[in-house]
Amino acid sequence: MIKRKRNKLLSGFHNLFLLYTLFLFSSISTILTIPSYAEDKPLRQLKIPELSLGQEGISSWQEKVRHELSQRLSLPNTKPPSFNEKHIKKEENLKWNLEEIEIQSTLQRRIYISLATLSPKEEKKYPAIVCIHGHGGNRYTAFENEPSPYHEFGKILVQNGFVVITTDVGQHEVYEKDRTLMGERLWDLMRCVDYLETLPFVDKNRIGCAGLSLGGEMAMWLGAMDTRIKATVVCGFLTYMDQMEKNHCMCWKFEGLRELVDFPDIYGLIVPRALQCQNGEKEPSDQFPPSLAKKAWAEIIPAYRAFNAEEKAEWIIHSGGHEIAIEPMLKFLKRNLS
């Protein structure tokens, strides 16, 4: 009797083991048959075209990519009828002035901008630059006196005859419903361009942008998505998305981005307008090293060749680290916006 019960018990355990094994095998099989991310959603579907596609093919590609990215960035469909500007304060110096102004960015949201101009201004139209700060910065960063990787680039540009405009793009929260973080940052910069175009002393055909780190990323986006930008300087942000997935703030990423493009493709939207990228020799390998930038640049430059516009594109390796090299930036912007 005891033996029969023991055999029955063992038989029960055996059946449970078989059921568990069958379940485990079934689960593993299910996991193995789930498509990988790349198979389910292929990355970089709208990669920058080859040189052989020619100018017309590249221009068509640019138009398509801008449209697709605009949708994913969730950019507003309409602009406010006016800036409804409010002048907050003005700092007057011997050679230049800095004014803080509040303007309408969207129908629901207002932003602060800083506008720097020569003092006194001559009776002429000046070129203008949208200067963009990085993480931890603000609209005043471009003018700060203390030592920083920005090296007072906004102040230097003003003193060299450029009108400079800045705004804050370092937020990590979405302000309006149904928007994206990167879309809101980009939109505010585009509104800066809108505002520059209303100023009687600004030449709207000579507007550029420049920035470092996050500011370089946003300069890339602004130059890519807004064709009014005639010259773009990107410092410390010529890289790939795989690199940015590691040890970096993930604020750059939004739904659908990686399926469409990588960063060289976004740079490709600037072609054939002027583009300068800067990388420092002392950049760590896990940040924005020249070795990775070289690979990305090799994907961008063929598109410039297709337009016979190689002289409009330059990649600078300077002796510093994660910072702006002032002299090549200034020389480039003077050459392309004079």
Structure description:
It is a single chain. With 338 residues, the protein is of the alpha/beta class. It has two domains: 33 residues; 287 residues, Alpha/Beta hydrolase fold, catalytic domain (Rossmann fold). Helices cover 40% and strands 20% of the residues. It is built from eleven helices and nine strands. A nine-stranded mixed β-sheet has the order 1-2-3-5-4-6-7-8-9, sandwiched between helices. Helix 6 links the parallel strand 6 and strand 7. The chain is globular, with a radius of gyration of 26 Å. The N and C termini lie far apart (104 Å). The N terminus is likely disordered.
List keywords for this structure.
single chain; 338 residues; alpha/beta; Rossmann fold; 2 domains; nine-stranded mixed sheet; 11 helices; 40% helix; globular; disordered N terminus
Assembly context of the chains: single chain
Q: What's the main sheet like? A: 9 strands, mixed
Total of DSSP H or I helical runs spanning 4+ residues? 11
Question: H/E series, N to C?
Answer: HHHEEEEHEHEHEHHHEHEH
User: End-to-end span in angstroms?
Assistant: 104 Å
Shape: globular
In total, how many domains does the architecture comprise?
2
Class from helix and strand fractions = alpha/beta
The whole-angstrom Rg is 26 Å
Topology at a glance:
Layout: H1 2-33, H2 37-40, H3 54-73, E1 86-92, E2 96-104, E3 110-118, E4 126-132, H4 153-159, E5 163-167, H5 181-198, E6 202-212, H6 214-225, E7 229-235, H7 241-244, H8 257-260, H9 263-268, E8 274-280, H10 290-306, E9 313-318, H11 326-337
Parallel strand pairs: 4-5, 4-6, 6-7, 7-8, 8-9
Antiparallel strand pairs: 1-2, 2-3, 3-5
